[in-house]
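Input sequence (219 aa), recorded before submission:
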Amino acid sequence: MSIESNLNEIKSSLPPYVTLVAVSKTKPVPDLMEAYNAGQRIFGENKIQEMAGKYEEMPKDIEWHMIGHVQTNKVKYMAPFVSLVHGVDSLKLLAEINKQAKKNNRVINCLLQIHIAEEETKFGMDEKELNELLSSDEFKLFQNIKVTGLMGMATFTENEDQIRKEFMHLKTIFNSLSALSTHNCQLSTLSMGMSGDYTIAVECGSTMVRIGSSIFGHR
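Predicted structure, C-alpha cell format:
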C-alpha cells in the first residue's frame, strides 16, 4: 500500500469533523511530500529540531503540530511557525510558549495534556492541576497563547474496555469545561486516539486523531 492509499483509506473512515494529524516523526521529507501531494496539510512531529528542519524544506501552507513532550529551552526554535502544541502539561511550559510567541508577534494555540492512562510514564496533568492552572492569575495574563482544547493518551493495552473508559473520562473533563470562554481559552478540540485506538477515540468524542504508522508504515 502506498502512503497516498493509506491516507485516503483512513480519511474515508473518519467523520468529517475529525481532524487527521499525520504523525511524520523520523520520516524523511520525500515520504511527507507523498502525503502532502495526496492532500495532507497537517503533520505532527515529536522533536522540535527535526520539525524545524522539515518546516524549512517543505511548502509553507503546512500546519506543523508539536505532539511530543516539550522542553522549555527548545520552545524558541518552533515559536516562529508551529500551529498547535499538543502536550502542554504545566504552567511553566505555557509561560515559556507565551513568552516566545510574543517575541514572534504571534498567538500560539495549545492543547493541555491530561493524564488518563494507568501507566506512570505518560505525561500530563490531573484534574486538580488542570483546574488550578486554568484559574491561576498568571494564566489569565497570557496574551500570546490560546488554549483550544485537551489532549490525552490511553494506556497501551489490548483491553478495549479500559481504553474506552479512559477516553470517556477525558471527554467528561472536556465537557465540564466547555462553557469556559476567555480571551485565551476556548475549548473546541479534543485530541485523543492514535493508530491503534483511534476508532475507539472517535466513538468517545475525539475531534483530532494522531496517526503515523498506519499512514507511513512501521519504523
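Checked by second reader. The first strand starts at residue 19 and ends at 23.
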